[in-house]
UniProtKB/TrEMBL annotation:
Its EC number is 3.6.3.40. The keyword Metal-binding does not apply. SUPFAM superfamilies: P-loop containing nucleoside triphosphate hydrolases. It comes from Thiocapsa marina 5811. This is Teichoic-acid-transporting ATPase. Belongs to the ABC transporter superfamily. Residues 36-255 form the ABC transporter domain. GO terms for cellular component: membrane. It is an enzyme of class 3 (hydrolase). It holds the Pfam family ABC_tran. GO terms for molecular function: ABC-type transporter activity; ATP binding; ATP hydrolysis activity.
Length: 428
């Protein structure tokens, strides 16, 4: 029976050197819902408090809508539920298989064919290779990509990739479904087809958590709702009561109204000017006029953070390394976890990481710098999943980056241990 429990969950993100850039700091503070504070004892670190003291209890049959302004913390909460973000404080317990429909292309390899990526994405969803082969024809037919499925997906357009990712992600209903806003999935005909499939898909799911600015969509899909502001839950209850409370708070605070209902469950965000100068000028005008609904907050934050983060690849590669290290720690410390599926997953993550760093020295440097940080996160996560004390695992990462990515090496086996010894000697 599926369930979700969150107890006093908080998530914060440090932004280094931002306090020294007053214009940028004011932009972040005015455009995001999280609260910004200076780290104690430092004038070079600011902390964006994305979630604060979130308590949540969901059981089978719950369909909950997340309501709030841009940057209120809705997407961060979904990413915590999906296991993408680890909370700084509090406890998260998710019982049941989970599929996030806000990052549906996760785990897909641009150098592999469409057919190969169907299998690969299925492995990330927890299915076996044989189960995915049984669904292969149905998924292929739904995508309408034909012979393109025999080509590497790096040759696909964005719409074609979205079709493939959507078809795989909705090929099997999970226990828990996480949806963030809309999903752009192609032309109008395919949107209608995808909308019908998503409707059937959601009917089979035990728990749905949906974040949307569409009042009509939340009314149609949800029986409960949470109202979020600045990373906190400020209201909860029936969908209608929470939407009414949201409108009242908007009217009292001069905020904008909820956007007009979407015609489909699946929609893409409105386009923003491609010219950076035109976008910056337009965004500045929206901010001066208080038109928060018109601001592309995701892009604004990315642009601002890029000013203080000269290494944009580091977060991405650190996430890859953290996931890989978690799998290897569990493999090493729990012999019962050494399944063929886990081995295939480890191999695929290694392959993906190798592709990311193969020809880019900057990414290699970012990976090497991120290894210890990734291991620290992986150590905590693995200990929690295995229900053991963190102190039982090595305090520092016991392997180098080349060994970590060596697909012939697996810890906990005699041959592998010999390989570790020889490679350590070579590294020394």
């Amino acid at each position: 029976m599926a369930s979700i429990t969150l107890e006093k969950v908080s998530v914060s993100f440090p932004v280094y050197s931002s306090a020294t850039r007053s214009i940028k700091n004011r932009l972040i503070q005015s455009a995001t819902g999280g609260q910004i504070r200076s780290e104690s004892g430092s004038d070079r670190i600011s902390v964006v408090q994305a979630l604060q003291d979130i308590n949540l209890q969901l059981e089978s049959g719950d369909r909950i809508g997340l309501v709030g302004h841009n940057g209120a913390g809705k997407t961060t909460l979904l990413r915590v539920l999906g296991g993408i973000y680890e909370p700084n404080e509090g406890r998260v317990a998710v019982d049941g298989s989970t599929v996030p429909l806000f990052d549906i292309s996760l785990g897909m390899d641009p150098e592999s064919t469409g057919y190969e990526n169907i299998i690969l994405r299925g492995l990330y969803l927890g299915l076996s290779r044989s189960q995915m082969r049984g669904r292969l024809d149905e998924i292929a037919d739904f995508t309408e990509l034909g012979d393109f499925l025999n080509l590497p997906i790096r040759t696909y357009s964005a719409g074609m990739r979205m079709r493939l990712a959507f078809a795989v992600s909705t090929s099997v209903a999970p226990d828990i479904l996480l949806i963030d806003e809309g999903i752009g999935a192609g032309d109008a005909a395919f949107l209608q087809k995808a909308s019908e499939r998503l409707k059937l898909f959601t009917e089979q799911v035990s728990i749905i958590v949906l974040s949307s600015h569409s009042e009509e969509l939340i009314k149609r899909m949800c029986n409960k709702a949470l109202l979020m502001e600045h990373g906190r839950v400020v209201g909860s209850g029936s969908t209608q009561d929470v939407l009414t409370q949201y409108r009242q708070r908007q009217e009292g605070g001069g905020s904008v109204e909820i956007s007009a209902p979407l015609p489909l469950e699946i929609a893409s965000k409105p386009a923003t000017p491609s010219d950076p100068s035109a976008w910056a000028m337009e965004t500045a005008r929206f901010l001066r006029e208080g038109r928060w609904d018109a601001v592309d907050v995701d892009r604004l934050v990315e642009e601002v953070v890029s000013l203080v983060d000269p290494d944009p690849d580091r977060d991405l590669i650190e996430g890859q390394l953290t996931y890989l290290l978690v799998q290897l720690l569990i493999w090493h410390w729990r012999e019962s976890e050494r399944s063929g599926l886990r081995r295939e997953t480890i191999d695929q993550v290694r392959h993906q990481t190798e592709l990311m760093i193969r020809e880019d020295k900057n990414v290699v440097d970012a990976a090497e710098k991120s290894l210890e940080s990734a291991y620290k996160k992986a150590r905590s996560t693995a200990a929690q999943r295995m229900d053991i004390e963190e102190s039982q695992l090595p305090a520092k990462c016991p392997v180098t980056l080349p060994l970590l990515l060596d697909r012939t090496w697996f810890p906990g086996q005699a041959a592998a241990d010999d390989a570790v010894a020889s490679r350590r000697a070579a590294d020394a």
